[in-house]
Amino acid sequence: MRASLVVGNWKMNGGLAANARLLDALVTGFPRDDAGETPRELAVCVPFPYLGQVQAALSSSRIAWGAQDVSAHASGAYTGEVAAGMLVEFGCRFALVGHSERRQMHAESDALVAAKARAALDGGITPVICVGETLAEREANATAAVVTRQFGAVAAALGSDLPRIVLAYEPVWAIGTGKTASPAQAQEVHALLRGALRKARAADVRVLYGGSVKAANAKALFAMQDVDGGLVGGASLDADEFLAIARA
Ligand code: PEP
Hints:
Layout: E1 4-9, H1 16-29, E2 40-45, H2 51-58, E3 63-67, H3 84-89, E4 94-97, H4 100-105, H5 110-123, E5 126-131, H6 135-139, H7 143-158, E6 166-169, H8 183-199, E7 206-210, H9 215-222, E8 229-232, H10 239-247
Parallel strand pairs: 1-2, 1-8, 2-3, 3-4, 4-5, 5-6, 6-7, 7-8
Helix pairs in contact: 1-2, 1-10, 5-7, 7-8, 9-10
The protein binds phosphoenolpyruvate.
Phosphoenolpyruvate binds next to strand 8.
């Protein structure tokens, strides 16, 4: 059985005082013993400078944490980059890889995303690999081709390590826009990805949905057969909203 997973992406938001309030509310609201019948996991991916604060706040909780990016390199002359081994020292379990904001604003190619996923796994971090189409690509009926190409680059680079990833389907047109894919639209792409994972002998990889997930729409999205949870941006900055999504 695939345990459901909800991951918050704080993006470039936060501050020491606001983080402390948010983390405190999350720890209180997501108790150590999960009374629910479905195994469920919660994590937050935060800006690099706050990893120490998050580690201190969450290490005795059931909430995991991670970064929003990771270098494709293990060490060396790569100014500004952060290696997977460094993230491990701060207790990170996850790193987002290939988020559309990095693919678009930092020109990250499929090859670079695959190399970052490889480096994350080699360093002991689970990459949460994001795939998804733009609005223009959806309107050109290219959704399947785009996510298949993005997934294929990662599958080719990881080979037998593919079962160790988490995948996130994030339609670019739904991120931060308030426009969510309908549960049926999400399921269609998740089923496609599940088929590709099955063919690559990685059927149990969790596939999260991301794109304007809120407490009000999470239940319907997470009820879809191949949706194993969510990657949540804006709503992860509000403890009540994020906890309601985690319970959905
Ligand atoms: C994200 O940042 O991955 C995301 C899905 O953002 P939002 O939930 O704000 O659309």
